[in-house]
Structure formats: C-alpha cells, structure tokens
Amino acid sequence: MLARGGAARAVTEIFAPVWVVAGLLLLLGWHEGDVALGGIAALFESIFPFAYVLSQVRQGRLSDRHVGERAQRLVPLLVAFGSVVVGAVLLVTLHAPRALLAGVAAGGVGLLVAAAVNHWWKMSVHAAVAAGSCAILALVFGPVLLLTTPLIALVGWSRVRLGDHTLAQVVVGAAVGAVVAASVFAALR
Questions:
Q1: Which H or E run includes 130?
Q2: Residue 129 belongs to what H/E stretch?
Q3: How far apart are the first and last CA of the chain?
Q4: Model confidence over 28-73: pLDDT tens digits?
Q5: What is d(CA 96, CA 102) in angstroms, rounded to the nearest whole number?
Q6: Domain ranges in the chain?
Q7: Minimal CA–CA distance to 139: which of 94, 97, 187, 80?
Q8: Residue 176 CB partners (closer than 8 Å, separation 6+)
Q9: Cα separation of 102 and 12, whole Å?
Q10: Distance of alpha carbon 76 from alpha carbon 96, whole angstroms
C-alpha cells in the first residue's frame, strides 16, 4: 500500500504542470531553432507562476504547491495568466517563432478555462496539462508522439490514488486540456 502511494506521489511530482509545461516550451523552442526563447517562455508560463505559488505556501496563504484546495485556485491561476501575458508580449517583441507563441497562447487559454471550471468544480490541472502537452507534441512532431498518451493515464491514476481528484475530475481535465491545447495551438501555429 505504501509503495503504491509512494509511486503515485512520485508520478504527481515528476509530471507536475510546472515541469511538463517548462519541458514542452523548451522542446518547442528547440524544434523552432531557439531554445533561449523557449526558456523565456518556460520562465513566464511555468517557473515564475510556480515561484509565486511556493511563496504563498511559505506564507501560509495556500495549502500546498499543487493548490489542492479548489477555493484557493483562482488567484494563482490568474497570477499565472498575467505572467503568461507578460511573457507573450516579451516573446512577440523578441520575434519568437510562431509555434512557440502558439504554445504559450494554448497555455494561457488553458489557464483561463481551468480558472473558470475550478470556480465551480475541481478539475484536474495535472491531467489537463498532461493531455494538452501530448496533443501539442503530436501536432509538432507527428503521430508517433501519440505514444506519450499513456502518460495521461499514469498522471490521472496518481491524482486519484492520492485522493486529490475523482476519476471524473481527471477525465474531464484530460479532455478539456487536450481539446483546448490542440485547437488553440493548431489555429495559431
């Protein structure tokens, strides 16, 4: 029993949105020939918002770094969106590749959708980010990257196993994440 809980915690931490988004944006930057701009995108869409969350956890304003309490999610999601907007403006100014900007926009729209849904219901952001990232990877690198889709189930399993989400919250998160990311990315790419 403890081993499964430990495995679930490890999966949740390794595939936390902060790391998945940062990795995706670095890959997009690499694919488009500018890893540095991918790094800037990762800073504004992932690392800076995560630093904000950590500061709020240290000050006792948030329950944990995954913002497990639904009622606490709105402000961190809106702060993250603000950071995404600032990063997007900077990336446009620096003439970032279109695919990288599309990835940033997909993340920003995903944050707004997550904020809206989480106002009423605790959708899994972990599952949404995992599914959205898999969708974007398949659009960029081809159908062979659909081989990453079992990771969505693994992330979902970890969230349910830890008691952080129900199966419905994970399934809806994955569906919303995939649809939002794929449609926004495809439209802007």
A1: helix 125-141
A2: helix 125-141
A3: 45
A4: 999 999 999 999 999 999 999 999 999 999 999 999 998 888 889 8
A5: 10
A6: 2-188
A7: 187
A8: 113, 114, 117, 123, 128
A9: 26
A10: 26
Helix axes 98-120, 167-188, angle to 10 degrees: 150
Q: What are the CB-based long-range contacts (under 8 Å, 24+) for 175-180?
A: 175/131, 176/113, 176/114, 176/117, 176/123, 176/128, 177/110, 177/127, 177/128, 177/129, 177/130, 177/131, 177/132, 177/135, 178/131, 178/132, 178/134, 178/135, 180/106, 180/109, 180/110, 180/113, 180/128, 180/132
Are 120 and 103 a contacting pair, CB within 8 Å?
Answer: no
| pLDDT tens, residue by residue, 67-103 | 888 889 889 999 999 999 999 999 999 999 999 999 9
Report the distance separating Cα 34 and Cα 103, nearest Å. Answer: 14
pTM over 0.85, yes/no = yes
Distance CA 54, CA 36 (A): 25
Per the CB < 8 A criterion, the answer to whether 34 and 28 are in contact is no
* Phi, psi for 121 (deg, rounded to 5): -150, 145
User: 133 is written with which tokens?
Assistant: 């990232």
Chain centre distance of CA 159? 14
Closest CA to 28 of 82, 101, 84: 101
